[in-house]
Amino acid sequence: MKILVEALWDEEAGVWTASAAGNIGLFTEAETIENLQRKLAAMVPELLAEDHDGPFEIELVARSLQTIAA
């Protein structure tokens, strides 16, 4: 099963926030993309264990907006 997760950089909080497409109830945050990937690897199977056996493929799409003075 493929899970699409979108991560957005929150400049003010200094963390990546992530949520999954669909209605699986996934929302989390982490200070680095690497930490976010580790959290997702643990969370996704836990959230979907009752309804799906796996394996689970997590597609992580990260976006960051940066404003630069001219």
N-to-C CA distance: 45 Å
Helicity level: 10-25%
Round the mean pLDDT to the nearest integer and report it. 92
Which overall shape is indicated by the principal axes computed on the Cα atoms? elongated
Secondary structural class = alpha+beta
Widest sheet, order of strands: 3-2-1-4
Low-confidence stretches: none
Biggest sheet details:
4 strands, mixed
Let me know the number of strands.
Answer: 4
- % residues in beta strands: 35-45%
Counting H and I runs of at least 4 residues, what is the number of helices?
Answer: 1
Q: What value does the Rg take, in angstroms? A: 13 Å
Order of helices and strands: EEEHE
Q: Which assembly state applies to the chains in this document?
A: single chain
Question: What this model shows, in words?
Answer:
- The chain is an alpha+beta fold.
- Helices cover 23% and strands 37% of the residues.
- The chain is built from 1 helix and 4 strands.
- A hairpin with a 4-residue loop joins strand 1 (2-10) and strand 2.
- It is elongated, with a radius of gyration of 13 Å.
- 16% of the residues are buried.
